[in-house]
Amino acid sequence: MVTKRNPPEFQADAIAQYPVALGSNDQGGCGFTAAAFSGPRCDNVCVGRARGWDDAMGFRSEAGGGDPLKPFDMATAALLMVDSHGVIAGWNQAAQDLLGYTAADVLGHSVTTLLVDEGDVPAVQSWLLGAENGWEGLLAALHRDGRPVELAVRACRLHALGGHREWLVALRDVSAPRENEWREDVAWSLLQQSPLGVAVLDTNLRYEWVNLAMAHLDEEVSGAATSPAAGAEPSPIVARQAKQVLKSGQAPVALENIAPVRLAGREDGGHVRLRSSFPLSGADGNLLGVCHAVLDFQGQDPARERLTLLNTASEHIGTTLDLDRTVHELAEVVVPNVADFVAVDLLESVHTPMDLTPRSAECSDTLCRVAHLSIQEDLPEVSVRIGATPNYPKESPQRRSLATGQPIREEVRPSTPWLAKDPLRWTRLIRLGVHTQLVVPVRARGINMGVITLLRWKNPRPFDEDDLLLVEDLVGRAAVCVDNARRYTRQQQAALTLQKSLLPQDLPDLTAVEAAYRYLPADAEVGVGGDWFDVIPLSGARVALVVGDVVGHGIHAAASMARLRAAVQTLADLDLPPDELLTKVDDLVVRLSDEAEATSDGPVVIGASCVYAIYDPIARTVTMARAGHPTPAIAHLDAPVEFPDVPAGPPLGLGGLPFESAEIPVEEGSIIALYTDGLIEASDRDIDVGFERLCFALAHPDRPLDEICDTMVRILLPDRPSDDVAFLIARTRALSSDCVAAWDVPAEPSAVHEARERSVSQLQVWGMQAAAFTTELIVSELVTNAIRHASGPISLRLIREHTLICEVSDTSSTSPHMRRASITEEGGRGLFLVAGVAQRWGTRYTADGKTIWAEQPLPASV
Question: From 163, 195, 228, 336, which residue has the greatest number of CB atoms within 10 Å?
Answer without folding.
Answer: 336
